[in-house]
Specification:
Blueprint (H helix, E strand, L loop, with lengths): L2 E8 L3 H31 L10 H8 L3 H5 L2 H26 L21 E4 L4 E3 L2 E5 L1 H8 L3 E5 L9 E9 L2 E9 L11 E10 L3 E7 L4 E5 L1 H22 L11 H31 L2 E6 L13 H9 L9
Parallel strand pairs: 8-11
Antiparallel strand pairs: 1-7, 2-6, 3-4, 4-5, 6-7, 8-9, 9-10
Length: 327
Amino acid sequence: MFLAVQKDVFSPGKELDGLLCDLARLANNLYNQAVYESRQYFFASDRKPWKVLSYPKLYAALKERENSKLLHSQAAQQVMKSAYEAFKSFKALHKLFRLGELEHEPKLPRYRTKGGLYQVVFTGQSLSVKDGLIRVPLGRGGAEAFDRDCFHIPLPERLKEVEIRELRFIPTNGHWVVEFVHESLETPALSCKLHSESVLALDPGLDNLLAGVTNTGQAFLIDGLPLKAKNQWYNKQVARLKSILTCGLESTRGVTSKQIQRVTHKRNCFVRDYINKAARWVIDFCLDNGIDTIVYGRNKGQKNGVNLGHKTNQEFVQIPMLAVCPD
């Protein structure tokens, strides 16, 4: 049985929101400490990219730090593991670079913004469910610091019969997104006959998000104009809001506000929903017509350094072409 993820926008009360912000700041601080330890180990190893601080050594160096003690032990371990995985990926990418399979030399993982928020992850071992509520423990250090040993969040109705493997609290554009990692919901197997000789070719684009044609003569187009319109609306709104905030200053880099975060969240949700529905339609089309092979026009790196003019660049770069057919 494989795992699935359900994402929900979570609106905590004022008290719980403050608690989650405190936990996310602790996680952010701990992540930066893990990055510091890993970078220092790298520098002490004559900058050899194959020298990466192992997770046991990283954990031993940080387990007695204040940020680690104030988080639940498993939540702290998840933060350290994410930093370790970042350096592990750096090591793998550098190997590809040395073999000539990567054009640009990868850079060391960087520090997160000081005072920022980072995701807080609780594993299923630390969670318990009772009366439709998930009990999330804070650990010994957290209980002393926050004068409470846990907090509760509602369990989605559709997940009451499955095991929660992981619970993630992710700060995103002024919102809290809760990800429930769970065992996949059992559904009846689809009874359809697929033909090995049937092939569907997909070509991504702008005005037409997807153009599809089969080797049996069938064809379809999925409209891409709603995505272009939403991105155009988003860019105009953000430009207007930033001009108000900066009062005509030359640079708007890093400028944000709650209104900009709301606009960004609305745009991201629309794009994700549109892409997912397009992918679902393509899958249903293949099942209905017995197609078992999809050929997708994937051009990795096609957006790097692209210069199609200001307007076309804006439309092309902001549409997640590979989201329909990820790795």
